[in-house]
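Task card 7
Instruction: Convert sequence to structure tokens.
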Amino acid sequence: MTPVDPEKTLEPGNIEQRLERYVPDLHKIANISIEIPFNLDSSNIGPSEWSILYNLIRGRMDSYDGFIIIHGTDTLVYTASALSYLILDLQKPIILTGSQKPLSALRTDARVNLVNATELSTYDIPEVTVCFANKLYRGNRTIKDSIESFDSFDSPNYPALVSIGLNVSIREHYIAKQKENLDLKAVFSSGIQMLKIFPGLDPYPFYKIIDHSVRAIVLEGLGAGNLPVLDNKWIDFISDLRNRGVLVFMLSQSPHGSVDLRLYASGRQAEEAGVISLRDMTVEAALVNRVAPPSQRSMLWKPEA
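Output:
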């Protein structure tokens, strides 16, 4: 996807001309080939497009030293998370970037993001990452936290892998060296729902929307993973879901920090009812962490890594 003239049908030659016009230095950094698998507003990008990107990159893995995906910002971290779970034996950088303003705009951030992403694609950083506002973040640890700032992404619970100023500062010890020889299939399930818990919310109406197709529920709890327990409605709701075979996970509404279900009584009751802590995962990473079968799921995300 490209931030340039999204209302027009784009072709590789067209993009090359625009890059040459607005970012002529890119070709001084690397030899660039351009492909357009789809051209969509990022709010329309989902599992089908993740599969397309996965298969495209897999098929060209031996032909290039690195990959850059130009992506709309709204769902960029969902795509980054999905790809990070699919390509576990990655030995080359896959960098997602985009911009808050179009490439042709006078005060665009697209140029510096493209230059940074292109340069970093030549480094030995074998991860799926997000490059924005002079930082490189691990893809499945990143969130979009602003709709009006150029510095619109953050990694609240994991340090930036790279900071870019006068020099490129790489934090080598934070970069994963992935060696697993796994070839996952890009098959996604839509059987997941998310509920944000707030004071006074009654779980009863949600019984009506949970049918046999729902395989997992992610609860966005309060603080360290708490929820109202005085009337037992939520505990009964969780117990009913678990009895149906539905997995129930807990995230925190606070972006910084980690879920600890044993810290307070309400969290302990939730854990006893069958809730599984997702610790410090982002919402986006949690919602796409359904791409692998249970036997492989433990390999996909390690909070301490």
